[in-house]
Design a protein that fits this description.
Number of domains of chain B: 3
CATH superfamily of the largest domain in chain A: Response regulator
Strand order of the largest sheet of chain B: 2-1-5-4-3
Distance between the termini of chain A: 28 Å
Number of helices of chain B: 9
Radius of gyration of chain A: 19 Å
CATH superfamily of the largest domain in chain B: Histidine kinase-like ATPase, C-terminal domain
CATH architecture of the largest domain in chain B: 2-Layer Sandwich
Number of strands of chain A: 12
CATH topology of the largest domain in chain A: Rossmann fold
Number of domains of chain A: 2
Largest sheet of chain A: 5 strands, parallel
Strand content of chain B: 15-25%
CATH class of the largest domain in chain A: Alpha Beta
Order of helices and strands of chain B: HHHEEEEEHHHEHEEHEEHEEE
Order of helices and strands of chain A: EHEHEHEHEHEEEEHEHHEE
Shape of chain A: elongated
CATH topology of the largest domain in chain B: Heat Shock Protein 90
Largest sheet of chain B: 5 strands, antiparallel
Distance between the termini of chain B: 67 Å
Oligomer: heterodimer
Helix content of chain A: 25-40%
Mean pLDDT of chain A: 87
Radius of gyration of chain B: 50 Å
CATH architecture of the largest domain in chain A: 3-Layer(aba) Sandwich
Number of strands of chain B: 13
Low-confidence stretches of chain B: 458-464
Number of helices of chain A: 8
Strand content of chain A: 15-25%
Mean pLDDT of chain B: 84
Largest interface: A-B, 26 and 32 residues
Strand order of the largest sheet of chain A: 2-1-3-4-5
Structural class of chain B: alpha+beta
């Protein structure tokens, strides 16, 4: 992926750029909002990381300007301090995701990957398939190898999210935000318990290899078994 | 400032002065109107009297002749409050009466000077007279004293002067008294403010208990001061709590790093030490962001980002999220949720607050505890009650549960930072609601009341 980082804090910027390059992405950086706008307009980026507070053109205005110029590269906002309503404000300006500093690099990477490879025809997709696991989004049913799996509504949403992002790491906070709409970090292991129940339901008694894998300290990944 | 200057500059004094001025002007206008009306009336009466007398004398002259007229004039001239008379032959020869003869007299109304001095006040007597021709150049003049009109004028003027003068004295005196009373009370407020500026927050504006406007102002000021004092105290409390509660994890972090420096010999040792240090740092960051969040919520202006929030959906989603956890810990989590309870609020904050309440109940009770959650609407308020039958909280600890970093003796060993219910309290405050903590003996009951239910739909269900 080709990623533009608009961030005026040198240390954060080099931390992000170095990490992205290590993971095989092309990353450009500018500390200035106006330069960022010009680069984003001509650079053909797959995703943008934008700090809310950058000189000459603040992050919100920058993204609004990009959107009105019909540049629709996904934008992930970074902010040092999240005020009440900031997230909604960021999304309304045309941002796609929101991350509060300090953050783990792995979290940023997972979110960028989730943004960068969004299925383009998501609205028209009615079934999701990974191996023999199938999800019918209209009937809200799940089957594995033709056998019906009884899922609670929340479990269905959890599985749907994993399948839409199959082969990519989804973090615990991404799941909390998308599946439960919890924009905070609960002290209880609600993701873990729901995940273990979901696993139990789709594993079919351990006959097949596991589809859902835990990525230690980060989150989960739903991966088609290669065998 | 000079005390007299201060007095004159008070609002009450200015009001009094203005009032006196308005009164004086209206009294003058009224006086002038009375004056004009009275003079016109008096002059009319005088003219009428003079005319009647003239007609009477003319009749006498015609019937009885000149000598009878002369006798009659002399007779009437001697009466008390007599009119003034003159019977004159051509070329200015006076036959009777006290008005001096005047060869220039012509029939009709005219003003004359009768004598050098009046007997009462020594002013020249001015007379308004009606002159008639009796035939053959003999003239009859009947007049009345014009000074009578002036006397009335003077009486009215002096009454007016007294009225205005007295009103001014009373008004200004009253204004001074009023202003001094007012100034004394303003001074009391100012003294309180000065004392507080000087650093003594215990001062309050004295109240008289009369319930008048200044008393009410004093009451409001005192309540404002109470609020400021509470805020100051909580600020001091929070700063010392933060310092105290962050020292422990920071020193643990320091010890781990020190240990690693002194003891670690292999890469594995170092990795372990780094992991442990990162965990400590994570905990610290989490505490900081929780504190920051509470501060943001407390500092936010209500209704800034408020929208219609489906409380039913939030509570259902929270119950749904914690149900598996509760089951794993062998808690019994039950919920009775009224459908379609909608309030004006902040979705994210309400979700977090409600999660915190449920989490609090889950984490501070032993397994087997029942946790009952009820959401309903009651007289315009949305009410969320979370009851448990766990060990509960000591009565004297109840008011402190929402304090930052407060953790009861029993919960000190469980993980957590003691900020969960502080956030709940802050969110409740932001939504102008109130939080009720009760001891159920056994167990704890937390009731969250949120005002402004937008609407409550008994039917239909909105899934989160």
């Amino acid at each position: 992926m080709k990623i533009l980082v608009i961030e005026d804090d040198e240390q954060t910027a080099s931390y992000i750029v170095r990490g992205l390059r290590e993971h095989g992405h092309a990353a450009d950086h500018t500390p200035d909002g106006r330069d960022g706008f010009l680069m984003a307009g001509s650079g053909g980026y797959d995703a943008l990381v934008v700090d809310r507070m950058v000189p000459s053109l603040d992050g919100l205005s920058l993204v609004r300007a990009l959107r009105s110029a019909k540049i629709d590269a996904p934008v992930l906002f970074l902010t040092a301090l999240r005020g009440i309503g900031d997230r909604v404000e960021g999304l309304e300006a045309g941002g796609d995701d929101y991350l509060v500093k300090p953050f783990a690099f792995a979290e940023l990477l997972a979110r960028l990957q989730a943004l960068g490879r969004r299925p383009p025809l998501a609205a028209l997709t009615t079934t999701l398939c990974v191996n023999d696991l199938q999800l019918d989004l209209l009937k809200r049913t799940a089957t594995r190898g033709g056998e019906k799996i009884e899922l609670q509504p929340r479990e269905f949403r959890l599985l749907e999210f994993l399948m839409r992002h199959s082969e990519r790491v989804v973090t615990r906070t991404m799941l909390l935000e998308s599946v439960w709409e919890f924009h905070f970090d609960p002290k209880t292991n609600i993701v873990e318990t729901h995940m273990s129940r979901l696993r139990g339901k789709i594993s079919r008694g351990g006959r097949d290899s596991e589809l859902i894998h835990t990525v230690r300290g980060l989150g989960y990944v739903l991966r088609a078994s290669s065998s | 400032m000079h005390p007299v200057h201060r007095l004159v500059r008070t609002a009450s004094f200015r009001f009094a002065a203005l009032y006196v001025l308005v009164f004086a002007v209206s009294a003058l206008v009224l006086g002038e109107a009375i004056f004009v009306a009275a003079r016109a009336n008096l002059e009319q009466q005088m003219a009428l009297g003079v005319q009647t007398e003239t007609t009477f004398l003319q009749d006498e002259f015609r019937q009885k002749g000149l000598p009878a007229l002369l006798t009659l004039v002399q007779l009437r001239g001697r009466e008390a409050r007599a009119l003034d008379y003159l019977v004159q032959q051509p070329r200015g020869v006076r036959l009777a009466g006290e008005i001096p003869a005047n060869p220039g007299l012509r029939p009709g109304w005219t003003n004359l000077i009768v004598s050098g001095e009046r007997e009462e006040d020594g002013r020249p007597e001015r007379v308004k007279a009606l002159v008639t021709d009796l035939g053959g150049g003999t003239l009859l003049a009947v007049g009345d004293d014009l000074n009578r009109v002036s006397e009335v004028e003077e009486a009215v003027t002096s009454a007016l002067a007294w009225t205005v003068g007295l009103a001014a004295i009373l008004g200004i005196g009253g204004g001074v008294l009023l202003s001094r009373a007012f100034l004394a009370r303003v001074d009391a407020i100012a003294r309180t403010a000065e004392a507080i500026i000087a650093g003594d927050l215990t001062h309050r504006v004295p109240m008289r208990g009369t319930g008048d406007d200044l008393d009410r102002l004093a009451g409001t000021l005192n309540r404002m001061l109470d609020r400021i004092t509470t805020l100051m105290e909580s600020l001091i409390q929070v700063s010392s709590d933060v310092a105290h509660d962050l020292r422990t994890p920071l020193s643990r972090l320091y010890q781990r790093l020190e240990d690693a420096r002194d003891q670690a010999r292999s890469v594995v040792d170092y990795e372990e030490a780094v992991e442990a240090a990162m965990r400590e740092a994570d905990g610290l960051l989490e505490t900081f962001s929780a504190l920051l969040r509470i501060a943001q919520v407390e500092g936010a202006s209500p209704r800034a980002g408020f929208r219609q929030v489906n409380l039913t959906a939030i509570v259902e989603s929270v119950v749904d999220a914690y149900q598996p956890d509760a089951e794993d810990a062998a808690h019994r989590l039950t919920a009775q949720i009224e459908q379609g309870v909608i309030v004006a609020g902040d979705q994210e904050l309400l979700t977090q607050a409600i999660s915190n309440i449920v989490e609090n109940a889950l984490r501070h009770t032993p397994s087997g505890t029942r946790i009952d959650l009820r959401l309903h609407e009651s007289s315009g308020d949305a009410v969320l009650v979370v009851d448990d039958n766990g060990p509960g909280v000591a009565e004297h600890d109840l008011p402190r549960l929402t304090n930052r970093f407060y953790r009861s003796e029993r919960s000190r060993t469980t993980p957590g930072n003691g900020l969960g219910l502080s956030l709940v309290a802050a969110v409740t405050e932001l939504h102008a609601g109130h939080l009720l903590l009760r001891n159920l003996a056994p167990g704890l009951s937390i009731a969250l009341h949120l005002p402004r239910v937008v609407k409550s739909r008994p039917l239909g269900r909105e899934d989160a």
